[in-house]
């Protein structure tokens, strides 16, 4: 896929932006607005919004009908990002300081809470709002629980009594899939479903586009994990998951399977250390890289990607169907 | 009003509890449930829920129809309490450690976010859900903005760049009323309106019960402020608002009007000090107590309370109407 292909998807998704910005100004005093709009000033890639729009079009609906539903899905994403940065003390997002850094934690929390109310306004504006609301609320609950599981898979660094008491120190790959399914794939699934609803599609199309988003989301997350640990340069901090003590990373979990008992204990010890030095980080990465973890993860991701595309087979041939296939490639190809 | 009168209201409001507890368990894995239910284990006084139930009954509706709407209003209240404790680092609520103390800040945030989704489920379950949703979302936005104003009226203690840049250091009483109207009175207003909707009441009854709640809420907040600064013992920490640098307190704002320029500057200096010593606190309270602030605040609160009761005049005589009048007394009489 050419860079111009990506640009096309970004343009598609960004059609949701004016809808979001308009909704943000409703019921907010003028002094609050700069805090509310800051996060949307730098446009994200809006891949989820693009997925809604293309899913609608590929299901036979008009693109214009998908813009507001795309705004709903994009709003869920951005609400969860601002909250996520509060939980992880995130400092940089999309190359800029996060809302919490620029405004402060208390205001960032109020901004995110306000986003949740704006989300309600956006849903209420939709014609088929009951279906979308049901999907949105279910997805939000899943994202919240996925975040909880992600935190439980952290092996150090937090003092929350609940996390220390319930920490998952020996996760299976099934636990991992449960976590990323909720935290990441559920919203891509929602994107496919909501796009299909916008086209008034029949249930089997809604389900197929949901599966498409779900599988693409899983593929994306597995690749994101691999790039974090094994990638040379992704524009992000290297091996951030190890620094953040996260055992909920596909590459680490698969590497653990292949390591000797001694190495396995050492890798787990590094991930569970309160402070991970540069040397420890280097050691951990070299241990993972000695195993076939990267190759296995790429195979897993490619399998999910194939599944995603295969689920499109129920759709009639169209340029939009082809574009959905390209979009899945694009989502998986980049870590963003 | 006798203590048994209060107990009656508490019992009325607590009818909403099983509805809330049932809704909390939907879509939540069993390991998450203890964190979700902790906050509801100690029952609050549920005055807002009681207001919904009595408003419905006084407007001619059946009490049973008001239980679910009461759960909605009570859920908004508790969502905002858990978030509020995160913002204010609150440690004790209803005589017990707060959710954030028992579970940790990250999990408390996820718990509150989950409450917001449960709120949506509760609204969706209502027959007249469009009206209730509209009121609920408007009220939530107001509560969020009221919290923002409350933070802007704090004169020290926070490092949030947004707050330092936008701090309100010379508030008028109008600014104060805007803040408490949004932060406190709006939800009491919603309680009256939602109760009226549950009774399928005509618009003028909805508005009258909204005004009743609004005025009762203002009266409650002004009395709460007075008790904080001037009260001898309310079960709460004394003069917490001064310790928390809050200029958004009716008694302080009115005292400032009566003090000499020198004393005014000193009181403002104490409220704006990064660390308020016991001696400074004593000095501040004695300055306020030298003015007629307490008397004036009590007069303001009594005026609001009268207005609240007067707005009930459109209702037909009934024991429920009388009970609403008693409930307003009860809401104002106690700081909770």
Describe the structure.
The structure is a homodimer of 336-residue chains. With 336 residues, the first copy, chain A, is mainly alpha-helical. Chain A has a single domain, classed as Farnesyl Diphosphate Synthase, CATH 1.10.600. Chain A has helices at 3-14, 17-24, 33-41, 47-58, 67-88, 99-103, 105-124, 129-152, 161-166, 173-198, 203-230, 240-243, 250-258, 261-271, 278-290, 293-310, 319-333; strands spanning 92-93, 96-97. A two-stranded antiparallel ribbon of chain A has the order 1-2. In chain A, a hairpin with a 2-residue loop joins strand 1 (92-93) and strand 2 (96-97). The longest helix of chain A is centred in the middle third of the chain and has 28 residues, at 203-230. Chain A is globular. In chain A, 53% of the residues are buried.
Explain briefly what this protein structure is.
Two copies of one chain form a homodimer. By secondary structure, chain A is mainly alpha-helical.
Helix and strand topology:
2 copies of one chain form a homodimer.
Chain A: H1 3-14, H2 17-24, H3 33-41, H4 47-58, H5 67-88, E1 92-93, E2 96-97, H6 99-103, H7 105-124, H8 129-152, H9 161-166, H10 173-198, H11 203-230, H12 240-243, H13 250-258, H14 261-271, H15 278-290, H16 293-310, H17 319-333
Antiparallel strand pairs in A: 1-2
Helix pairs in contact in A: 1-4, 2-7, 4-5, 4-10, 4-17, 5-7, 5-8, 5-10, 8-10, 10-11, 11-16, 11-17, 13-14, 13-15, 13-16, 14-15, 16-17
């Amino acid at each position: 896929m050419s860079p111009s292909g990506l640009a096309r998807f970004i343009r598609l998704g960004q059609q949701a932006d004016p809808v979001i910005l308009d909704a943000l100004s409703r019921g907010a005093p003028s002094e609050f607005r700069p805090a509310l709009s800051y996060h949307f000033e730098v446009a994200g890639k809006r891949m989820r919004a693009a997925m809604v729009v293309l899913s609608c079009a590929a299901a036979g609906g008009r693109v214009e009908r998908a813009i507001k539903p795309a705004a709903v899905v994009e709003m869920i994403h951005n609400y969860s990002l601002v909250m996520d940065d509060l939980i992880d003390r995130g400092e940089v997002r999309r190359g800029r300081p996060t809302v919490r850094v620029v405004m402060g934690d208390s205001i960032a929390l109020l901004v995110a809470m306000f986003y949740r109310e704006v989300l309600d306004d956006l849903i209420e504006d939709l014609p088929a709002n009951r279906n979308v609301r049901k999907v949105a609320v279910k997805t939000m609950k899943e994202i919240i629980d996925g975040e909880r599981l992600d935190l439980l898979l952290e092996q150090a660094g937090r003092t929350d009594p609940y996390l220390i008491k319930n920490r998952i120190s020996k996760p299976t790959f099934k636990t991992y899939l449960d976590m990323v399914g909720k935290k990441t794939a559920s919203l891509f699934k929602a994107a496919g479903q909501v796009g299909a609803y916008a086209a008034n599609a029949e249930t089997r199309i809604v389900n197929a586009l949901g599966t498409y988003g779900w599988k693409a989301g899983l593929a994306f997350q597995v690749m994101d994990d691999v790039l974090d640990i094994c990638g040379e340069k992704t524009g992000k901090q290297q091996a951030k998951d190890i620094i953040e003590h996260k055992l909920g990373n596909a590459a680490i979990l698969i590497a653990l399977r292949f390591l000797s008992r001694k190495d396995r204990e050492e890798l787990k010890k590094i991930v569970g250390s309160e402070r991970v030095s540069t040397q420890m980080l280097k050691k951990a990465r070299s241990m993972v890289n000695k195993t076939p973890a990267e190759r296995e993860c790429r195979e897993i991701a490619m399998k999910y990607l194939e599944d995603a595309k295969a689920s499109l087979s129920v759709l009639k041939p169209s340029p939009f169907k082809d574009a959905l296939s390209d979009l899945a490639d694009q989502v998986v190809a980049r870590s963003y």
